[in-house]
Each structure stands twice: as structure tokens, then as C-alpha cells.
Amino acid sequence: LYGDSKYITVAVTTGAITADACWVWIRRRGNPSDLTLELCSNSAGNPSTVLKTVTVSTSTITDVLSVFYKFDWTGTQALSAATTYHIKMYGGSISDENSHWDIGVDTGTSLSNTSSDGSSWTAATFSTQIRIVDADIARRWMVYNGLTNFHAVSKRDSGNSDFYLIN
After folding, report:
1. How far apart are CA 62 and CA 71, in angstroms?
2. 3-class secondary structure, 70
3. Cα–Cα dist 85/39, whole Å
4. Taking a C-beta distance cutoff of 8 angstroms, is the pair 130, 54 a contact?
5. SS (H, E, C) 49-67
6. How far is CA 112 from CA 10, 70, 149, 161, in A?
7. pLDDT tens-digit profile of 104-152?
């Protein structure tokens, strides 16, 4: 995240979920300034209003090897089904060839956009690899072996909609 690619965004569409965090492969190079991830609304195919934000620093990510990091924003964010949102990431003012953040991407697809200033976006030749996760559900699982199948039943602490699985 430096130069013409100081900002990266990827458009995402989910089902109706209560988003709690976003996981991203990141790697620290040198001693860059803070790394920020924002969950944004969509405006004409580009990120718009910031809905959630998380910032990490080199004191948070101390290892220079890549890590699958959980950007856990405060609270949760309701995401509507079939609505486009954006995950936008950018480094701070100290971002150059020797000190920057690397973000895990898929070079086989091209769903991301890059920017040098966070306002004018250009199509990238890769897709940022992210995983948005739903809020945790407080529940207990009971598992047992039936005559021919393995069964799992969940009991939610709230008493709402339990879940039953058969393998």
C-alpha cells in the first residue's frame, strides 16, 4: 500500500448478515505507519460513507511474516442482502517501497480498485482477499452418533432457532 496503490478497495455483496469483523492476509514491510480498514457503503461503484473502521499499527502487527488478521470493529454492522459494500484499506503517511503494508490478493481475478489519494479509483489486475464474518452466536453444540449417521444439534443461549445437522 504505497504510491499509486496506497488505497485498495474491493466491492462485496453478502446475504443479510450482522457483520462483526473482516479477516485479511497482511504483511508488514519495514516500519510503516498505521494500516486502516474501512467498511464503506457504495456510490456509483466506489466506496462512499464509512460505516466501520479499524486501525492497526506496527505495535499490533509485530511480525514481518504474513498473518491472517482479524480487523474487529467496535459493535456490529447490519448488511443488507444483495447490496454492494466496499472494504477499503490504506496505509498512513509513511508508505514507500521500504516501509509499507502488503495485502493478500488473488491475481487470477480483477475485482479490486486502487488509488493514490482515496478518491480517484482505477481498476486493478487483482482481487483483495477478505473474509467478512457474522457476529458470534452464543450457543452450545451437542453431538452424537446415530445408527448410521453423525448428528449435531445446537442450543442457542437466547433460545432462538436451534440448528440440526446430519452427516
Report:
1. 15
2. strand
3. 7
4. no
5. EEEEEEEECCCCCCCCCCE
6. 4, 20, 43, 37
7. 999 999 999 999 899 899 999 999 999 999 887 788 888 888 778 888 8
Q: Which three cell numbers stand for residue 114?
A: 486502487
Q: Which amino acid is present at 152?
A: A
For 33, phi then psi, to 5°, come to -80, -175
**Does residue 163 have a pLDDT over 70?**
no
Q: Which amino acid is at 80?
A: S
Start-to-end C-alpha separation, the chain: 44
Partners of 8 in the β-ladder: 89, 114
Q: How far apart are CA 24 and CA 142, in angstroms?
A: 31
8 A C-beta contact, residue 105 and residue 1:
no
Average of per-residue pLDDT values in the chain: 90
Distance CA 84, CA 51 (A): 13
Q: What are the tens digits of pLDDT across the range 68-89?
A: 999 999 999 999 999 999 999 9
**Among 83, 4, 5, 3, residue whose Cα is nearest residue 51:** 83
pTM for the model: 0.82
For residue 122, what is its C-alpha cell?
A: 482505477
* 58, 35 Cβ separation under 8 angstroms: no
Residue 161: pLDDT band with limits 50, 70, 90 = low
